[in-house]
Each structure stands twice: as C-alpha cells, then as structure tokens.
Specification:
single chain; alpha+beta; Thiol Ester Dehydrase, Chain A; five-stranded antiparallel β-sheet
Length: 136
Amino acid sequence: MRVGAIRVGAQLPPLEVPVTRTLIVSGAIASRDYQDVHHDAELARKKGSPDIFMNILTTNGLVGRYVTDHLGPRAVLRKVAIRLGAPNYPGDTMTLTGTVTALDGDTAEIRVFGANGIGHHVTGTVTVTLAAGGAA
C-alpha cells in the first residue's frame, strides 16, 4: 500500500484467527516461553486456568502480522505496544480490527483490538513506516 493510499480514520479489514492448541503451543515454543500454562492443560488447570492459553509474544506477533498483511511487505513495524485482557483459549476465535489514528509523513499509527468469545484479548497501538512511492 502506498503512503497516500490510507487516511486517518481508515479501518483495516478484520482478521479472524482460529485459536488452536497447535497455535498456542507452537507460538510458545517459537518464542521460547516454556511456561506450563502454554502447553500443559492439566498443569494449567491446577494453576486455576480452564485450559492452556496463548502467550503475549504470540499475540504480539499476530498483531504485527495483521498490520503488515494489510499494508504490504514493504511496511516496517517501528513499535508494537499491546496490553492483554481476556485469555485466548483453544477452540475460540480472535478477531483483530484496526483503525488508522495518525499519519505523519510515511509513518502511520494504527489502533488495534483483538476480541474473542469472552472479551477483549488485546488492545494496542502499532507504529509502522509505509512504503513511499509505488505499490508495497
């Protein structure tokens, strides 16, 4: 996407992410987060969770993917600042939505929300540099 192709207030199309056990466990392994609550359902339940749940680093990666998938391969993430809310458990779907909140030259700020069946999983802001000139 070109710099001039977006505007403040533009909404990114929603992205539905099926939350599977494989996604949760592989995200934890890929980010070297070996906490048992991200891969062992029995130990997660012993610690008070109904099941394993997604870690923040996987969520952070999904938020970044959401923005760059929409803006194109030449978009560069400069900052991803997120806060977690309701856990992402297996069998749910997280729907990511975003709105462009600021533009400054070739830099955009996008407010991102991710909701699942029990509430807001993630809220945050992504700062991204857009491709200048030509298609991304």
